[in-house]
Structures are given as structure tokens and as C-alpha cells.
Amino acid sequence: RIVYVNGEYLxxxxxxxxxxxxxxxxxxxxYEVTSVLDGKLIDFDGxxxxxxxxxxxxxMRAPVTTEELLDIHRELVRKNEITEGMIYLQVTRGSxxxxxxxxxxxxxxxPTIVLFxxxxxxxxxxxxxxxxxxxxxxxxxxxxxxxxxxxQLLYPSMGKMMAKKAGADDAWMIEDGFVxxxxxxxxxxxxxxxxxxxxxxxxxxxGITRAAVLRFAREAQMKVEERSFTIDExxxxxxAFVTSASTFVMPVVEIDGQTIGEGVPGKVAPRLREIYLExxxxxxx
Length: 285
Ligand code: PMP
Fold this sequence. Notes:
globular; D-amino Acid Aminotransferase, Chain A, domain 2; about 30% strand; BCAT-like_N; amino-acid biosynthesis; BCAT-like_C; D-amino Acid Aminotransferase, Chain A, domain 1; 15 strands; six-stranded antiparallel β-sheet; branched-chain amino acid biosynthesis; binds 4'-deoxy-4'-aminopyridoxal-5'-phosphate; pyridoxal phosphate; alpha+beta
């Protein structure tokens, strides 16, 4: 696999980062995951804008322009012959050659940028989308700036493991009784003909897929309510689903062992998945 590191395209075994990099020592880094369908980038603009916002919120310097970023994405897709899959991008504050809690001087410290591809044939045709996934509720003990897409992913990883241990696929995190989001996706329920999902705030990641799906839902005259819901309300819902760049729209058919609706994907989530895939393929770059 050919990867990109700080201006160079290299074989992955040749790629190197300093052991003093703050991404490694302090999780002082941000990331994005963009999916590739038909060899093209899905929602690239949204991901580039959110990356800029994450860097701004952390006073991190952008290592490349958005135009350069698009070129790098395309070049990696080409070099690795990706038809369906993902591109992972990470930017860290870099390092001043020592370990220090204070940020190094941004004038003299180069940020680190790394990108690599992951081929995922069958990403759009994922069989899990036909069956739906099972989730469990767990406490949300993450920090208070979940709107910044940092690489501090230890708790979401632990959540995923708790889910696997419980025989489920993923976890929905709960704070003050209300569902915040999934370990790596935004969470939704459907009641009657209304789609309900938590409103944007610092408590959740502002999903790029979420923005697109809500726009398509409204364009298709579906009702959307942006408000918090409890895990108990979710268990009584007609449908549940999650969205993310790598799973698009994924039905949820079980929460804490309780069946949602008929225990199979309902009408709304599969329809939204279809619309999302169709529209974003058309808009892919
Ligand atoms: N919430 C969290 C915590 C996530 O990690 C992700 C995916 N990275 C999302 C939501 C979904 O965001 P997006 O649609 O931009 O992939």
C-alpha cells in the first residue's frame, strides 16, 4: 500500500513519524474518514470543512490547503486502485523534539499529516445493512468537546469491546439519561413518520453523513426532529439507525437485547440509505 506522510508518497513500510510526535504522546491530533465509491470521494467538502474546524478549535496549523488535500486523496485512490473503501487522514500538532504539556510554538513546529487508504469491496452493498445491527447502552464518560474530531478514541474502543462482549455489534453512549451518539456514528430513532436525532452541540460529533441524511430526509418531505431521546424511548421506537461516513445509514434492530419494531430493518432507514447512496454517488468528486 502507498501512504502519504508529510509531502511524500511512500510504501507503508518506509513511512516514519517521530516518537516525540504529540499525536503519539498526547493524542494531540485530529482525523477524518472519507469513503470512496466508484473510485470517487463521498462528501469530501464536508470532511475538509470539519477538519479545518477541528484544527481551528485546537489552534492547530493546517499542513496543506483544501485543494492540496483533495489532490492527495485522489492520488492515493489512484495509486492504490481503490474502487470502494475509505481514506483515513490524520493531522497532529507535530513535535518540538521533547515532551511538554504546553503546545510548541506553531511558527517553528510543523504539523504532521498522514493519509492511507483501506480497500473495502462491498462497502455499499454491506450485508449488515439488510439485517441491521444490535447495540447496547453504555455510560458516556468522554470529555466535553466531542464536536472536535480528535484521535482520543480509547473510550469509544472500550465501548465497542463492551458491545462485543455482550454479543452486540456496537454501543450507544448515554449521558444524564439521554443518548449522545454511537461509538463511531450518530444515533437516530423513528416514531411514526418522524426521524429523531440529538441536536448539534459540543456533546456530539457533527456528523457529515448526519448533515447529508437530514437534508435528504427533509427534501423527501420526511419529518425531522432534532432533540435528545432516552434509551427507553429508543427501545419503544418503531425504528432505530446510525449514520457515519463508513456505514452510511445502518439500521439498528436491537437495543440492550430488546427488539426494535419487527426486529428487522423498517421502512425509513433502508429508504434513507438508498437515497443517501444514490445522491452522494452523484455528488462524489
Ligand atoms: N460520532 C462519532 C463519535 C464518530 O466517531 C463518527 C464517525 N467518525 C460519527 C459520529 C459520524 O460522523 P461522520 O458521518 O462524519 O462519519
